[in-house]
Write a structure and sequence with these properties.
Largest sheet: 22 strands, antiparallel, barrel
Shape: globular
Oligomer: single chain
CATH superfamily: TonB-dependent receptor, beta-barrel domain
Strand content: over 45%
């Protein structure tokens, strides 16, 4: 059987799923397989075996291991991997950062084909779109071999979906779950399941496999927020605030996922497969906000004049990902030929919603108290709706699409070189990507005497202070529905942010593998040629211009990997690799807006980021589910991209503001990864059920931030945390299994201020998330589970310059879940 199809038996299809613990002593003989397949130690052991045999420096989370952690999606599961952290949206893991490298600089593949990004301006894939139920395994490759796409600086996240050849014969599982969000005090349902079986075609026996999985969840949750946007005035030695806002979010998030896969293995020398995946992520969000903009900046405890506002945002955003991969492999004597064709598409659609409905009024004797979590200080007149009149209503419609098509061919020949096993491998890949973004905006204004009193909804449940009534979305829609839509069309906002970008990549590689004694050496060279084309619209002093820009560049990327087997259980690894990442689509956007002395624009001429990477480490495997490892890594980055203001230089000499993106000089990132996992099965009962895992990543970075006038300062790489760590302790007996997991990441630079204004750099504070899961077998095939997420009620806090000064504070509350899973092997 080809190596591609030698798989571990573990398979997980539900986050509640398939048991955490060992099979009960009272179970029938068939349950003995459950001990091997779905125990905590078994799932970790399978992942470690894959990690040990990999030619790359790689971390693996096996699918049944995902099910043992209280994680809702693929992003949250990956936060447990050494060197990885997640960016959260409304408390849920969303984007994944690898070794301190921002999510846009890493890549994600599903079954070997690139996953495009639903968001119009990003390359980063929001992995909360992908329900973990559809995942067979997750791996993070941190040192790329030449036969892999070179489009990541931190690592490539590989998602593998399920296959019928993961099991012997019939397999099925069904799960149901109810979760309680403490912030909104609402219960949310979830259902998932999977099926796989093998069939005999022709003269073969069990040579055709069908596997299917589905997941549906509708989660109702929310958050409470207070933010300043970092609008502090630090002149004169006092910290004074220009504006402050309180927000309440009510969200309904619906996830639907489905996967259907086919495998055909007619003999021991060939295999063919079709992988399909569909995922839909629908967010319905209502955000009520109120705030103050002070006539003059004022400090905490001071009172003065301000414009007050009440604002509503009500929209429905739907993101979809589709992926189809057709491939096969054939062994002909010493040759192995493999080919794959992939098509993937990501879309983002908002059919039209309220981007903002703002009522304003003037107030005196108002202010705020506190600087890290400021509270509005207002009188009763602020809660009188007759004191607010409608300023404007913004209606927005979004339609974005990202498509990627590719064809790949690989040929490998095994032979002997001076009595040593060797392989030469070569191949190529053609990729065609097309990303479009289309936004339409209408701004309804010139309202006269329209009072908030006629457009109120019920009381807003805001945990950070008194709020009062919200704004009715239905009433606002009824108001603008009777107006002439064409008269309020905002042509500027609707045209200059639209674009159509094409990115064609042609790649080829040559790679050689040689086994000499205890050494495995891999050397190779990869070529990637990129052709980029962008179309958009610019606005210059009221006149629209069509923009067409193109760029072409080539990269030759050598690589060298070495693995030395010190002992059967201990290996040294080293790698020298070179990678390249294209700028984000937002940075490359061709549109611009020039209005008098103010300008903002993208930069289609940006150079791609390049990185030379060094990795060195040691792995020691200790029996079942046991490993201790340490890795050093170093990355030397060129063409670092940053936002800048070019006003006062070159063609922008007479401008007050000229905001764009530029390539900088170099940046450096270096660090240490430590990992440990151990099952203490040699201890006497009950301690023989104990399982402990921990990992720690320590890193440092240095980048040069340069202004238009030539001024420079050294900064950390944005989104890079100096410390990322995980700790897990689990215990399993015949019926009961428990697992407590903690994830920590230190604070990091989120957003840069001006070159000479460190005080307005924004930093995200450190976070510690603690989650718990327990499972109990009611019968050999039926398990009851309980989960508690964010049990310490960790908040999200961003500050400006110093931790005392708020930019954003948001809290979510814990979530509790109860589930039931039926599984048959």
């Amino acid at each position: 059987m080809p190596l591609r199809h030698i798989r571990c038996n573990g398979f997980r299809v539900s986050l509640l799923a398939i048991a955490i613990g060992a099979a009960p002593a009272w179970a029938e003989e068939e349950a003995v397989e459950r001990v091997e397949v779905i125990g905590q130690a078994a799932s970790i052991d399978k992942a470690l075996r894959e990690q040990k045999s990999s030619d790359s420096i790689e971390s693996v989370v096996h699918a049944d291991g995902v099910g043992q952690l209280p994680d809702d999606n693929a992003a949250e599961a990956l936060q447990r991997v050494p060197g990885l952290s997640v960016e959260r949206d409304q408390g849920e893991g969303r984007f994944v950062s690898v070794r301190g490298i921002a999510p846009d600089l890493n890549s994600v593949t599903i079954n070997g084909t690139l996953v495009p990004a639903p968001e119009g301006d990003r390359r980063a894939v929001a992995l909360d779109v992908l329900p973990a139920e559809l995942v067979q395994s997750l791996s993070v490759v941190k040192s790329l071999t030449p036969d892999m796409d070179a489009n990541s600086l931190g690592g490539t996240i590989e998602v593998e979906s399920l296959s019928a050849f993961d099991h012997d014969g019939l397999f099925y599982t069904f799960s149901s779950e109810a979760s309680q969000d403490t912030n909104v005090d609402k219960t949310s349902p979830k259902f998932s399941g999977a099926f796989s079986n093998r069939f005999s075609l022709g003269d073969g026996v069990d040579n055709f496999g069908v596997a299917a999985a589905f997941s549906w969840q509708k989660r109702k949750f929310g958050s409470d927020n207070v933010e300043t946007g970092g609008n502090w005035d630090f002149s004169g030695g006092d910290a004074r605030l220009e504006e402050v806002e309180a927000r309440d979010y009510q969200i309904s998030r619906e996830r639907t996922g489905f996967g259907l896969n086919f495998d055909y293995q007619p003999d021991d020398y060939s295999s063919y497969y079709l992988r399909t995946l569909y995922s839909k992520f629908k967010d319905t969000e209502t955000r009520n906000a109120m705030g103050l903009e002070f006539a003059d900046p004022q400090g905490s405890g001071q009172r003065g004049e301000a414009e007050g506002w009440r604002d509503l945002k009500s929209r429905e955003d739907t993101q979809e990902i589709q992926s189809y991969v057709l491939g096969g492999e054939r062994m002909i004597e010493q040759w192995t030929i493999s080919a794959q064709a992939g098509y993937s598409q990501a879309t983002e659609k908002d059919p039209g919603g309220i981007a903002g409905a703002k009522f304003v009024g003037d107030f005196d004797g108002v202010g705020f108290d506190g600087t890290s979590k400021p509270r509005l200080s207002v009188g009763s007149d602020f809660y009188n709706p007759n004191n607010f009149t409608l300023d404007e209503v913004e209606w927005e419609k979004v339609n974005g699409k990202d498509q990627e098509k590719n064809i790949r061919l690989d040929l490998a020949r095994d032979y002997e070189l001076a009595g040593n096993s060797a392989q030469v491998k070569f191949g190529g890949k053609v990729s065609r990507r097309d990303k479009t973004s289309d936004t339409e905006t209408w701004v309804y204004d010139d309202f006269t005497g329209v009072s908030l009193a006629d457009y109120q909804s019920g009381n807003v449940d805001y945990a950070l202070g008194h709020y009062g009534n919200g704004i009715s979305a239905g009433a606002i829609k009824g108001l603008i529905g009777g107006l002439d839509k064409a008269a309020f069309y905002d042509e500027e906002a609707s045209r200059i942010n639209d674009f159509d970008m094409r990115e064609d990549i042609n790649a080829a590689y040559l790679m050689h593998t040689l086994d000499v004694g205890d050494w495995r050496l891999i050397a190779g060279l990869r070529y990637e040629g990129t052709e980029f084309d962008a179309k958009g619209t610019g606005l210059r002093d009221g006149n629209y211009e069509s923009i067409h820009s193109s760029n072409r560049y080539d990269h030759w990327l050598p690589g060298l990997h070495a693995r030395y087997q010190l002992t059967p259980a201990t290996a040294l690894r080293a790698a020298w690799t070179n990678t390249v990442v294209r700028p984000t689509f937002g940075q490359l956007a061709p549109g611009f807006a020039i209005d008098g002395a103010d300008a903002s624009f993208g930069n289609p001429e940006l150079k791609p980021l390049e990185s030379m990477n060094l990795d060195f480490g040691i792995e020691h495997y200790m029996g079942r589910a046991g490993v201790a490892s340490a890795f050093l890594f170093y990355k030397d980055l060129d063409n670092f991209i940053y936002s800048t203001d070019l006003a006062g230089s070159g063609e922008w000499l007479g401008f007050d503001e000229a905001l764009t993106f530029e390539n900088g000089g170099g940046a450096r990132l270096y660090g240490l990864e430590l990992a440990y996992s151990q099952k203490f099965d040699w201890l006497p009962e009950p301690w023989n059920g104990l399982l402990v895992g921990a990992n720690l990543t320590l890193s440092k970075s240095d980048a040069t931030y340069q202004g238009a006038t030539g001024a420079k300062r050294h900064i950390d790489l944005p989104n890079q945390s100096d410390t990322v760590g995980n700790f897990m302790v689990g215990w399993e007996s015949d019926r009961l299994n428990l697992r407590l997991a903690a994830n920590y990441k230190s604070g990091y630079l989120l957003e840069l201020g001006a070159i000479d204004d460190k005080a307005h750099d924004q930093y995200a504070d450190d976070q510690l998330h603690v989650d718990f899961k327990a499972g109990y077998f009611l019968t050999p095939e039926l398990q009851l589970t309980f989960e508690a997420q964010n049990i310490t009620d960790e908040s999200y806090y961003v500050y400006s310059g110093h931790r005392r000064y708020n930019a954003q504070y948001e809290e979510y509350g814990p979530t509790y879940k109860l589930g039931l899973t039926l599984t048959h092997f």
